[in-house]
Amino acid sequence: MAACKRIPKTIFSNIFSRSSTGYQSSSSFGPPSSLISRRGIASRLYVAGLSFYTTEKALLDTFSQYGQVVEANVLMDKVSSRSKGFGFVTYASAEEAEKAISEMDGKTLHGRIITVELAKPRTKHTGGMPIARGPPEPPTEKQ
Questions:
Q1: pTM
Q2: Separation between Cα atoms, residue 44 and residue 63, nearest integer Å
Q3: What is the mean pLDDT of each run of 10 residues along the chain (143 residues)?
Q4: What is the 3-state secondary structure (H, E, C) of the chain?
Q5: Residue 87 neighbours by CB distance under 10 Å
């Protein structure tokens, strides 16, 4: 108990004001979307064939008809600052995601036919250039 007296009251009260999920109860929106998708609670969809003029808001509005959309992303090219033509939509539940796949796959969005499927898990990518190992060794004859 002596150690508790050394802890400032603000830190001590913050520790005990958290709910059982580990988040403060003042937030009515729940855990951040990054934690939901990492835990596997949410279902993430890959949407391909998007128009260059499709925005994240338009993607969110279109897919929110089929359930609660946690997050909608349209990937942008760094050089041209235009859409790469694909994006991701994250739903709060797998049932909503399946409904969106069945309803939206093969439909037209902003003049383009889109493909909607479950997103594959991210692979660990180190990035960067491959390590150069030099020219291949000449074959040796075995006797």
A1: 0.60
A2: 12
A3: 49 42 38 48 89 94 95 94 94 94 95 95 70 75 69
A4: CHHHHHCCHHHHHHHHCECCCCCECCCCCCCCHHHHHHHCCCEEEEEECCCCCCCHHHHHHHHHHHCCEEEEEEEECCCCCCEEEEEEEEECCHHHHHHHHHHHCCCEECCEECEEEECCCCCCCCCCCCCCCCCCCCCCCCC
A5: 22
